[in-house]
Amino acid sequence: MALLQISEPGQSPDPHSHTPSRKLAAGIDLGTTHSLVAHVADGKPVLTAGEDGAPLLPSAVQYCADGTLTVGHQAQQNAISDPANTITSVKRLMGKSMADVDHSVHVTYQLITAESGMPLIRTCSGDVTPVEVSAEILKTLKRRSEAAQGGELQGVVITVPAYFDDAQRQATKDAARLAGLNVLRLLNEPTAAAVAYGLEKGSEGIHAIYDLGGGTFDISILRFSRGIFEVIATAGDTALGGDDFDRLIVDWISTQAGLAIATPSAALTAQLLSKARAAKEALSNQDAVTITIDLSNEKSDSTSWQGTLQRQTFDALIAPLIQRTLRACRRTLRDAAITTADVLEVVMVGGSTRVPRVRQMVGEFFAKQPMVDINPDQVVAIGAAIQADTLVGNKPDAEILLLDVTPLSLGLETMGGLVERLIPRNSTIPASRAQEFTTFKDGQTAMAIHVVQGERDLVDDCRSLARFELHNIPPMVAGAAKIRVTFQVDADGLLHVSAQEQTTGAYSAIDVKPSYGLAEAEIETMLRDSITYAEEDMESRRLKERQVDAQRLIEAIEAALDSDGDALLAPNERVVIESAIAALKQAISGDSHHAIKIATDTLEHDSADFAARRMDASIKKAMAGHTIDEFSNDSAAR
Amino acid sequence: MAITLTAAAAQHIKKSLAQRGKGKALRLGVKTSGCSGMAYVLEFADEIDATDQLFTDHDVSIVVDSKSLLYLDGTELDYVKQGLNEGFEFRNPNVKDSCGCGESFNV
């Protein structure tokens, strides 16, 4: 008898299984201006720094005429010299048609409309889609994380704004696939921030996540209860962020310097933006900043301009934008039917919340000190990393954020019409389980996989979801083939079942929507029945298991009789075995598991001698013509 | 219907629950386990469902879901040391046969 240890709820180990090694995962914050990647090491989230030692990767990609490209800081710097081929803020274009793109936003590169109506970016190395540009950023992050963790990533969590629509989410997934990443889940940015602050470990209640990034503003009201973060209201502006602060400074400089802002050259625009960004960042720590603009390449009276921007002036410039964010906050609270007094915590996310005026006005609005302890640029990536670590299976299920659960168990039919449950009911989704199955008959080359849903032990009492077949299993003796069946339920509740034969790789799969056409009342009935009929189910399971075992034994012995019966058995011995088989066949057709058990034992007993003789014979055959030395050499060499 | 504990098992469960700092009871159960038969579930219980059966022995609360109880009725849980190895052992009268290592069983 094996000795057992007490497990955490839901974590009882499967028999005969071994603890898998730690899987590598990462969380990616794919931002408008900056992107980050983080992972969990020794239970703590860490940001992965790039070659330059900084974790922030500017979301900038430069395409060069020779077909090469640069990503990150280098590209951002080159934006000044080569603005037409350097793509920034591509997140604003993700999943949008040309008609949806906000043309009030300055871009330094040329957008054209593809035949599909989708935007394309014209660069010197050809036209590229926003998805392709995003994929380049993701590839860089993937390389970084894999170098830091020393292995291939099993999966990633990528964050998206809470109100990204399906097309925008799909575009993000497409970019990830193009970058060779397996997306475990797209996580809403506010939820990631809440996870980073460990709000799921605190008390139940309502939290506000104020996220002012480079290009987008999001306010999300999350309700945390019974382990679930629910976005109860969200609002924002996909075209409002720190970039707009920069542009206000650009406009201010242009006015101050008397530049013709109507038609600035691309190089000047890029220079102005870069100087404005530096000024904004400086004003977070000081009261005034001196700005110098190089005008030597411009048709201008002077070769340069210099001015001083006071923090007060800057605060006044951006106040209308902050007011806009607060109006969205007020609207969101109203949608959620709550007041600021109901909000337990306000979490600040996004680099732009470093601006002192933003913190101050948000604090006044909610009448509480906002949470700013975690670097606001990194908080989303940290939350994503924690979630990725959990989803890839490095943590007990109990700690998974319960976003949704499977209402009924999902499983498949095994011999005898029994159900083998792979994903138990109330499993958090996305969920993925795999189990190995084998063949029942010698030389079996195909397997039918019947996917069922329900809590009962017999297939007949469960709901049939789908059937498919796996062919091209190489002929082997019964029980030798290894067929790995994987059940995956994605975040949308879609079930993907695949079966793969392990030696040849023969593969077959199917997709089903388990909740389709299933009413609440039916689920309830199915659950109630599973309890009501528990005893009957146990009896039938016991009977079916015995029948299957007996059938397997009969098949094995009959096959053995066919091949070796004449050579190894005297006629009277053969009769004994054959009559035991006949007796067992008789018992199988009855419904007494006890009778089957007795007949099975008798057949096993009667055929034991025959089995021993077969073993001897096959060993003799294997050793014939060899010397003992050969065998000992063999074993020494091993 | 009953589930019982030996004194050694009860003592070890109390110690484990105290170390963990949370958990209302010890959950026993069975689950199907792939190739053959059933496997035991031995977990801390943070939640007790309406369909769970509750037992108390040696001041330790034990919960068993009503379905598993059919396979476990009469079981005595012991805590034993076998050489360097120590752990819980299910003495389950319903078991007809088990696999070689005892991790899975049939009723």
What does this structure look like?
The complex is a heterodimer of chains A (638) and B (107). Chain A has helices spanning 73-81, 130-149, 166-178, 189-196, 242-257, 266-282, 311-335, 356-366, 379-394, 520-532, 534-568, 571-589, 593-623, 628-637, and strands at 25-30, 34-41, 44-47, 57-58, 60-63, 69-71, 86-88, 110-113, 119-123, 126-128, 155-160, 183-188, 205-212, 217-225, 228-237, 288-294, 304-310, 343-349, 410-414, 418-423, 431-437, 447-453, 463-470, 483-489, 495-501, 507-512. Chain A has 638 residues and is an alpha+beta fold. Chain A has four domains: 20-197 and 377-394, ATPase, nucleotide binding domain (Nucleotidyltransferase, domain 5); 242-320, ATPase, substrate binding domain, subdomain 4 (Actin, Chain A, domain 4), CATH 3.90.640.10; 410-532, Substrate Binding Domain Of DNAk, Chain A, domain 1; 536-623, Substrate Binding Domain Of Dnak, Chain:A, Domain 2 (Up-down Bundle), CATH 1.20.1270. In chain A, the strands form seven sheets. In chain A, strands 1, 2, 3, 4, 11 and 12 form a six-stranded mixed β-sheet that branches. In chain A, a hairpin with a 4-residue loop joins strand 13 and strand 14 (217-225). In chain A, helix 11 runs antiparallel to helix 12. The relative contact order of chain A is 0.08. Chain B has 107 residues and is an alpha+beta fold. Helix content of chain B is 20%, strand content 46%. Chain B has a six-stranded mixed β-sheet with strand order 4-5-2-3-9-8. The longest helix of chain B is centred in the first third of the chain and has 14 residues, at 7-20. Chain B is globular and about 35 Å long. Chain B starts with a strand and ends with a strand. At the A-B interface, helix 11 of A face strand 2, strand 3, helix 2 and strand 7 of B.
